[in-house]
Amino acid sequence: MPPHRLILDCDPGVDDAFAMMLAFAAPEKIEMLGVTCVAGNRPLDQTAYNARRLCALAGRPEIPVYAGCARPIMWAEGEPVDVHGKDGLGDVSLPEPKAPLRDGHAVQFIIDTVMREPEKTVTLCCIGPMTNLALAIVMEPRIVPRIRELVFMGGAAFRMAMYRVSEFNFYSDPHAAHIVLSAGIPQTMFGLDITYQAEVNPGIFQRLDALTGPAPKALADMLRTYASMDPRLHDVVATAYLIEPGLFDGVEAHVSVEYTSPTTRGLTVARWTPPQLAAGYQTNTRVITKTDPAAFFDLMLTYLARY
Ligand code: BDR
Ligand code: CA
């Protein structure tokens, strides 16, 4: 399979940080076209700053970073979460960015890149609320058939979220999730179904602590506080899949998201049984449901050892 030529759309976020550092460490599998940022785990100015700090930490200041949407489509403000620390990256010591934020809006960057590059050569990976990609689709629908693949962390097809009926990225901007899910891009979903299967345990900390570079040390420091509240590195499965798709298995389903009801805001609905599909629902998403957690963590640690 040719390497992915990737736009990584994110809201770092401690698990975003791991996902990004993993992607940046695998240039033979992932060519980074750019990082686009969105409001989510923290407000936009912080997520865009964090993305640039992570590029500096990875020694990749040449990766262009764009700021995108500062709020969800239907609400004046997002609802950031505290699990990532005040600054979104566990409040640990990190290098200052080595490169400025690029001029221009992330939505325009997505459109320009997908329209400029040869058809079916650009992959999108969304690991935050999907506001940027949704608005790109609304502004320029011709990007849809040109995208090679969309890989996203969001939703919960076959299980409930623990403290809400929905997963954070879908909850944060369900209208954006609806626009993206129903657009017709070939898409692979990494929801809570899969992220709950790979929990960080003390052995992972030992192996991370055994890596000597400044980047693994910073990541381990970030993870310590985060994992005490949420032991799942949700976003990392999405970039691990771009590197090693064979680690994952799933089912084809029709996936949709609730975007009108305040009671069930962001709830994922997956239809995959033969009677459901016979009733007229077309499959639109590959929902990842299985992985080998040990092999997943091996992959993550092998690539992070490159720093
Ligand atoms: C998602 O919510 C965010 O807090 C994480 O970064 C991840 O993208 C998990 O539900
Ligand atoms: Ca995220």
Report on this model:
The protein has 307 residues and is α/β, with parallel strands linked by helices. The protein has one domain (4-304): Ribonucleoside hydrolase-like (Inosine-uridine Nucleoside N-ribohydrolase, Chain A). The protein is 36% helix and 18% strand. It is built from twelve helices and nine strands. It has helices at residues 14-24, 44-57, 106-116, 131-139, 168-172, 174-181, 192-195, 202-209, 214-229, 236-243, 274-278, 293-304, and strands spanning 4-10, 30-37, 65-67, 122-126, 147-153, 187-190, 248-257, 268-271, 285-291. Strands 3-2-1-4-5-6-9-7-8 form a nine-stranded mixed β-sheet, with helices on both faces. Helix 3 packs across helix 4 (131-139). It is globular. The chain starts with a strand and ends with a helix. Beta-D-ribofuranose is lined by residues 13, 15-16, 41, 81, 127-128, 153, 167-169, 234-235.
